[in-house]
Amino acid sequence: MAALRPTGMGDCPEVAAILAACDGVITAAQALGCGLSRTQVRGRVERGEWIRVVPGVFRSASHEYSQAAMVRIVVAAHRGVADGTTAAWWFGMMPDLADPVTVTCRDRPADRDLPVSVRVSRRALRPGAVTRHRGLAVTTVPLTALLAAVELPEGSAFLDRMLQTGRVDLAALEREVADSAGMHGIVEARRLVRVAASDSESEAERLFVALLRRWGVTGWVQQLRCGRWRLDFAWPEQRVAVEISGWSYHRDRQRHANDLAKANFLEAASWRELQFDWHMLADAGADCVQQVIDLLNARGVVEF
Question: Which residue from 13, 19, 116 is spatially nearest to 62, judged by alpha carbons?
Answer without folding.
Answer: 19
